[in-house]
Amino acid sequence: MISTKVDTKLDLRGLGNLAKRLTTLARTKAEVGFFQGDTYDDGTPVAQVAAYNEYGTRFHPQRPFMQETLENKTNLQAIIKLMKQAARASILNTGGARSIMQLLGKIVADEIKITIANYPGHNSPQTIATKGFDRPLFDTGKMLESVRFRIPGAAV
Predict the structure, then answer these.
(1) b vs e for 111-148, b when ≥16 Cβ sit within 10 Å of the residue's Cβ?
(2) Residue 150: strand pairing partners
(3) How far is CA 4 from the centre of its chain?
(4) To which H or E segment does residue 81 belong?
(5) I want to staple 149 with a disulfide (CB 3.0 to 4.6 A). Which of 39, 49, 55, 105 is the partner?
């Protein structure tokens, strides 16, 4: 009979560091949208106008540009790919998870801008008469230029 001893003792020394890295990643957020301080010339917050467009009001039709951006299959695949890369970087301790999250924020912000710029449909005849043109989600360009991202706790 030939036998060998297999040591099943598990070295758990690195698990504490892994847990810390994964906790840090879980707390790292890429916030994309319209932030406090961005206003139109009359003082109206850009975020308020964006919300009116996204969700609609009794005076404005719903134009869910942010939701449509995030539900776009190509965008969703890119987001998932970057999230996997950030998780992998944290698990393997290769660094770069924060920079991957910054890239994610930039990509989503850029895609929201593209959705706004190319939003389909038409304005009402009354709105066209007021604006002088028919381009949904665009009046002065302020909302489009105000789409930004940030990683809370990080200088971006």
Answers:
(1) bbbbbbeebeeebeeebeeeeeeeebbbbeebbbebbb
(2) 31
(3) 54
(4) helix 73-92
(5) 105
